[in-house]
Amino acid sequence: MAVPYFAVKVGKAGKATPHAEYISREGKYAQRLQQGEKLEATASGNMPKWAADKPLEFWKSADLYERKNGSVYREHEIALPRELTPAQRVALVKEWVSQELGDRHAYTWAIHNKTALDGGEQPHVHLMFSERTNDGIERDPEQYFKRYNGKYPERGGAKKHRSGETPTERKEALKAMRERWESLHNAHLAQHGHQSAAISMKSLAAQGIDRKAEPKRLPSVHNALLRKANADRAARQAVADIKADRVVKIRDGGGGEFQS
Q1: Local structure of 8: helix, strand or coil
Q2: Residue 78: which residues within 8 A CB-CB, separation 6 or more?
Q3: Average predicted confidence (pLDDT) for the chain
Q4: What burial letters (b/e) apply to 15-45, b meaning 16+ CB within 10 Å?
Q5: Which helix (H) or strand (E) holds 247?
Q6: Considering 139, 143, 166, 191, which has the largest number of Cβ atoms within 10 A of its Cβ?
Q7: What is the pLDDT of residue 244?
Q8: Does the pLDDT at position 8 exceed 80?
Q9: Are 170 and 164 in contact (CB under 8 A)?
Q10: 248: which residues sit within 8 A by CB, 6+ positions away?
């Protein structure tokens, strides 16, 4: 079933390049694809001219020139519905990127799909984007990430967009964003005949559900549980195969159970 998971993360200087490689499964992360994990799709956009055909150069420059104590990128990590096909999930992600970023922010996204604990798919998207806003001014990599100059924009870096300066403003902005995702997600499910899999981004209490939310697991714990679940499924399948093989042998060998 579709899962209502939406997290916003912030990356500091030095984190953008390895994270872009991680979500795109490049470099040392390419081996993840040999471990049963799927990279369904990946794309980048809104890059300045000097990074239009090599988005990794954008993130390398961000790590190099962005202020050391500043944020280099923001990321949306969102669960995608297994009810949709890979192509339909790509369409959902593209519409979300168009709606939330437009042509204003450089971005890279990737859809990963791994095996969930129940043996089904667990598709999700990583969308990382720069807070720097495209304003039509051509800047080289170093200038692009300098401090913005309000009086003379062409002399400074690209301006950063903020989703609120106070904790309350940022909380309200996140709440509104999660509501927009719920609406778009459910619209795509309905479009393809999966209305029953609609999600709600409200808390369980707000939905009137009297149950505690499942605790968040560390990756190491999740991987251990996944290995156990896979082993249990393999054992059950082996037992089923043995039983099926015995039935075939009885049929082929004229066993008493099937004699007339």
Answers
A1: strand
A2: 5, 6, 7, 96, 124, 125, 127, 181
A3: 85
A4: bbbebbbbbbbeeebeeeeeeeebbbbbbbb
A5: helix 219-253
A6: 139
A7: 66
A8: yes
A9: yes
A10: none
CA angle, corner 60, sides to 56 and 65, nearest 5?
145
Residue reference for tokens 């609406």: 183
Which candidate in 22, 73, 107, 144 is catalytic? 22
**Of 249, 77, 95, nearest to 178 (Cα)?**
77
Residue written as token pair 């459910």: 186
Q: Which residue type sits at 92?
A: L
pLDDT tens profile 22-39? 999 998 888 776 566 799
- Torsion angle of C-alpha atoms 111, 112, 113, 114, degrees rounded to 10: -170
State how far the Cα of 131 lies from the Cα of 72, in Å rounded to an integer: 8
For 112-144, letters b (16+ CB in 10 Å) and e give bbebeeeeebbbbbbbbbbbbebeeeebebeeb
Q: Which of 166, 153, 158 has its CA nearest to residue 140?
A: 158
121-129 and 38-45 as β-strands: parallel, antiparallel, unpaired?
unpaired
**What pLDDT is recorded for position 176?**
95
- The DSSP call for residue 216 is P
Q: For 180-215, what is each residue's pLDDT tens digit?
A: 999 999 999 999 999 999 999 986 455 555 555 555
Contact 109, 43 (CB under 8 A): yes
How many residues are given for the chain?
Answer: 260
Q: Which amino acid is at 148?
A: Y
**Residue 19 contacts by C-beta under 8 Å, 6 or more apart in sequence?**
11, 59, 73, 75, 128
Task: Tell me the C-alpha distance between 260 and 252, whole Å.
Answer: 14
pTM score of the predicted model = 0.80
Alpha-carbon Rg for the chain in angstroms: 24
Q: Are 143 and 163 in contact (CB under 8 A)?
A: no
